[in-house]
Amino acid sequence: MTNPYAAPTDDEAPPSSVAGPELPPFYPVGTTKLWVMALATSGLYLIFWFERQWRYIQAHSGQPMMPFRRGVSPS
């Protein structure tokens, strides 16, 4: 009988995902929601959406960026 409370031995592999689930590559928003929110907020939602896209890109690449500035001026 094995002891369930015993410390792991060296031959056991560590868990594959220690840091948690991976983020999706972009901020997930449905196409319909994007258009409805853009029309309902007179385009202000698009600034928020662009900022979130850049924040997700920053999280994936690890490079320093200014997501808010890029959200306001995406070019």
Topology of helices and strands:
Blueprint lengths: L30 H10 L3 H18 L5 H6 L3
Helix pairs in contact: 1-2
What's a concise summary of this model?
The protein has 3 helices and no strands.
Distance between the termini: 65 Å
> Rounded to an integer, what's the Rg over CA atoms?
21 Å
Structural class: mainly alpha
Helix % is 40-55%
Give your account of this protein's structure.
By secondary structure, the protein is mainly alpha-helical. The protein has a domain at 31-72. The protein contains three helices and no strands. It is elongated and about 65 Å long.
Fill in the keyword field for this structure.
mainly alpha, single chain, 75 residues, 45% helix
